[in-house]
Each structure stands twice: as structure tokens, then as C-alpha cells.
Amino acid sequence: MEENKFKVTIDGIETEVAPGTTILQAxxxxxxxxxxxxxxxxxxxxxxxxxxxxxxVKVAQGSAKDTRAMPKxxxxxxxxxxxxxxxxxxxxxxVVETRKGIVEFLLLNHPLDCPVCDQAGECSLQDFAFKxxxxxxxxxxxxxxxxxxxxxxxxxxxxxxCILCYRCVHTADQITDGRCHGVMYRGDHAEISTYISxxxxxxxxxxxxxxxxxxALTDKxxxxxxxxxxxxxxxxxxxxxxxxxxxxxxxxxxxxxxxTGRKNQWGEVDEFICNTCRFDKKETADWVIExxxxxxxxxxxSANKYRKDAIKPEYALKHAxxxxxxxxxxxxxxxxxxxxxxxxxxxxxxxxxxxxxxxxK
Length: 361
Known about the structure:
The model has no long low-confidence stretch (mean pLDDT about 85). It is globular and about 70 Å long. The chain has 11 helices and 14 strands. By secondary structure, the chain is an alpha+beta fold. The protein has a 5-stranded mixed beta sheet with strand order 2-1-5-3-4, with helices on both faces. Helix content is about 25%, strand content about 15%. The termini are far apart. It has 3 domains: about 5-105, Ubiquitin-like (UB roll) (Roll), CATH 3.10.20; about 140-225, Alpha-Beta Plaits (2-Layer Sandwich); about 225-350, no CATH class. β11 (about 230-235) and β12 (about 245-250) form a beta hairpin. One of its GO terms (molecular function) is oxidoreductase activity.
């Protein structure tokens, strides 16, 4: 073992990481096939994580020195690895079932208005619910509702969609001149808000839109202009005295309809951009175009671009493999109905469906 390296095994795959690395970071080092989902953790933001519980995993072995399992599921985004630790994520049934419950909790007050939400198509909650959720929800009580609120001249808050991940609060704390919004009240009454309406006004406030995993914070200059999967994202940059100037430009025809920071494989912006680049520079002449943007994670955005290197949703492929029969193209094609009835597949179908069999006697 290399000096100052810890060995950790996640879903049967071993890797070496530096001391202080969390389980989530170690899993991401291996790859998306074992990385837990994360709705509140955001690597560029310090102290983020530990809010949504979406990344819970089973620690089957605490370390090489203490081989006992941890009694409860642990939040992988805030739990540091130990040398010899063994972690179970997708291979553990308890973890999989618990995530279904987490999805239900996150959707308790969510309005499920994806057809009219600007975040649709790039929403982390959509991906999380599709991959880990259930088809039915048990919640029958009245949902918590709020009026839409302008918390800045360019940002609108839809508190109905908020899951209280605190990402926008950490963003305002760490990259803006002064935070003027936060979580008000307690318990079920907790909400993101400002004491003074439209108080959010600084050069980097637009990054709260990028970090929001749902459609709670939206860009007022982009609202209802276009579905993201019908737009064309390109990489571009410009010389800016406030930020890196590296962005995604989103085109509708020849018109730049929005500007966002570049997101990595995990949907996180590595280099935050200023409001001047985001809201004021929406002409092609303002930018140096680098080429079509490559979406580094599975997304309807990448799938719609007909690229050879498009990343297909892993969970959709797994679902198809588990629920649909592999077609054997070498089988003879039966053309007549009588031949079909003599086939083994037809007989197996009739055995499984007695009612259908009785109707065809």
C-alpha cells in the first residue's frame, strides 16, 4: 500500500484514496456505476451535504482494524473512509429500499409540475425519482404551497419545488459579497426566502440557479422560452475581469436564449460565472465559440444530439435488461397463426395467463 493511502472497497471494487476522503468521493473516483446519488452535496461548496439523505450506504466493515459493520446506514457525502472499509451501495437491498423512501419524502410537497418546469430534462430530482423511486406514492394529505417570489431582478423562487438542499445558501455564503437570503422558520414551515423582497443583487447571484438541483430557482430571462432538449448547447469563452468566462451557450436557432456555467459529469459547476456573462452577454459576437458542448453525464440533452459518443442512461439499460426478454434473432419466423400457437413461447404465455387460455378454447 502506498504511503498515506487508504484502501476502500465499494460494491466489490477496491480503490485507494487519501485520508479525509469521503465515501461519496471515493465512489466517484471509481465511477458512476457505484457512485451514490446526491441531491444536496456539491463538491465546490464547502460544508454542503448531509441534508437530503439520498446518498445513504451500508458500511459492512468499518475498517481493517475494526471489522464490525456500522449499525445504521451512513450518509456517504459526510462519512470519511477508513483503511480497509467495505461499503455496499447498489448491491445492498436495504440501501435500495431506503432510497425509495427518500424519494417519497422529497416528493411529499413537490407539485410534480415537470411539464411546465424549466428544469425538466436537466433535473436531478427527475433522475433520482426515475432511477430509485416507485411508481405509486402513499402521500394523501394536502401539499404545502407558496406563492412565487422574485428574490432578485433576474431570479424567481418557486418554493413549492424546493427540497431544502441548502446549496443556494452555501453559494451565497461562499462566492458572493454578502448573503441576504436563507432558510427561515423551522420544521415543516421552513422555507428559502429573503426578509426584503428582491434583495438578492450581486455579481455572482446567478450561480444559485446553476446549483439548484430542482426548478426552485429559475432564470427569469429564460422562463418558458424553450425546452432544453430542443436547444443546442455549445462551449464558449470570453475575457472577463470578474470570472473565468467559460460557459455553455444555449441556442434556439441563431438566438442565444441562456448562458450557464459548465457542468461536469456529476452535474456540478467547477468554475462559477458572473452575472455579466450570464445575463448581459447574449450575442454570439460577445463570445469565442469552441464547439458543440459535450454532456459528460447521461442526459436527454446528450441523447438528443445524435452523437456517437452520447452517454445513454445506465438505469434505463439496466431496467430493460431486467424486465425485457432478449430477442433471439436465430429463431425461425412463424408466419401463420397455427405455427405461432405451436411455438414454445405461445405455450408458455398460455400457461402463465389462465384466463386468456380459457377465452381462446
